[in-house]
Amino acid sequence: MVEYSAKNKNDNGELSLLAEATPQAVGELCRRFEQGGYRAWAVGGSLRDVLLGRSVADWDLATTARPEEVCRLFDRVIPTGIEHGTVTLIWKKASYEVTTLRAEHGYSDGRRPDHVRFVEDIAEDLARRDFTVNALAYDPLNDTLTDPFFGVNDIRDRRLRTVGDPLQRFSEDGLRVLRAARFVATLEFDLDARTEAAMEPSLPVFRKVAHERVRDEWIKCMAARAPSAAFDIMKRTGLLKVTLPELLEQVDCTQNRWHAFDVWRHTMLCVDQLPQGDAILRMAGLLHDIGKPKSRAFSEKTKEYTFYNHEKLGAELARHWLEDYRFSNADRARIVDLVRHHLVCYAADWTDAAVRRFVRRVSLERVPDLLLLAEADAMSKGRPVDRELELLRELRSRIDKVTANREALSVRELAIDGRDIMRSCALRPGPRIGRILEALLEDVLEDPALNQREILLEHALRHLKALE
């Protein structure tokens, strides 16, 4: 075990970084624990991120105080996981997760320990954690860093390695194999060979993990500069075979002469090209060509592969998977819409009416996402795409003009509504009203100048006669 301290300063500036970055409130909490006769440390990912020069969102503490003793020491304590020694402490309008030092035994459900035993030794507590870079504890009062498993060295070497035996660590919580892939991508680390070798044998435990937890990890993967690093590991270790085997089918799915890569590598490049701050848009990029392997056919006429209707098939495949993995209704609708409409086949000879119909079809709300996805899709083909990008910019400009002119793109934006039609045409409520409104919208998409009350009422009578 390594312990960095002012007396035995064998660090490379890590103590100075931690001392400077640790919030005053964390020091105050540790002091309060000390005054009550206990010890406390800042632990885990916050220390890792400080040493990597990354921003820290949350600070977690570990303490020798039992949960009931924490409740006596502080006024505002929420028993978020008190049976396992964890509470949430509210201090100066901020929240801190505080966990009593513990050892864990038995993991029959592949997630939670069957037995928890409180301990006094910080090194014993750190031994239950997943990766060495997370098994660190800093005491701001004594300016000491406890590092039993050489996590600081792994941070310096940018290497992800489990604490102790990787098979044992992965057997304790099946999600850890997926967390390994995620950390490699988000931290931009290399994966320790022994750790990776233990991932595929641990898949039976991973299969026990709730889909909601898997979903959350995939979304966190999308925060990486290059999420493809995580998905390449998932592919190599069998994780994708468990979660989304349709993605694996892309690996051997060659494309036509317009692509330099198979569908898998094209998809990975597309995800990496999309904005880093938008996880759901990147999920759409991940799934946008999921229908290609099942729709691929060889054309004797062109001597190339075709993928007719892969966007429609992909949208259905994506919808079922997103439902299975419990994505929210809003996120699911956004992703499915983008997969369904990701083929943007704009040409410079489109009329203004064609531009308006395009916006009508995909919805104005989806246009910004769709154009970003189309750009990333183009840039991931592995060939010069300057003309394609130029056309997409031209389409964006023409759509901006349509919206600036406030041209009607939906039935709601027409100058009349269903009640006007019923009064003018002496109709009762029924499906014909909706059909007439849709026909009127088609008229207005062709010529926005028609969107005037008297003109539309006249057109409504003509459409009614056509329906009779």
Please tell me about this protein's structure.
- The protein has about 475 residues and is an alpha+beta fold.
- The chain is about 50% helix and about 10% strand.
- It has helices spanning about 15-20, 25-35, 45-50, 65-75, 120-125, 150-155, 165-170, 175-185, 195, 205, 210-220, 230-235, 240-245, 245-250, 265-275, 280-285, 290-295, 310-325, 330-340, 350-360, 365-380, 385-405, 420-425, 430-445, 455-465; strands spanning about 1-5, 40-45, 60-65, 75-80, 85-90, 95-100, 100-105, 115-120, 135-140, 145, 160, 190, 295-300, 305.
- Strand 13 and strand 14 (about 305) form a beta hairpin.
- Helix 23 (about 420-425) crosses helix 25.
Chart the SSEs and their pairings:
Layout: E1 2-4, H1 14-21, H2 24-35, E2 40-43, H3 45-51, E3 60-63, H4 67-73, E4 77-81, E5 86-91, E6 94-100, E7 102-105, E8 115-118, H5 122-126, E9 137-139, E10 144-147, H6 151-157, E11 159-160, H7 166-172, H8 176-187, E12 190-191, H9 193-197, H10 203-206, H11 211-221, H12 228-237, H13 239-243, H14 245-248, H15 263-273, H16 279-287, H17 292-295, E13 297-299, E14 304-306, H18 310-324, H19 329-341, H20 352-362, H21 367-379, H22 386-404, H23 418-425, H24 431-446, H25 453-467
Helix pairs in contact: 8-11, 8-12, 15-16, 15-21, 16-19, 18-19, 20-22, 21-22, 23-25, 24-25
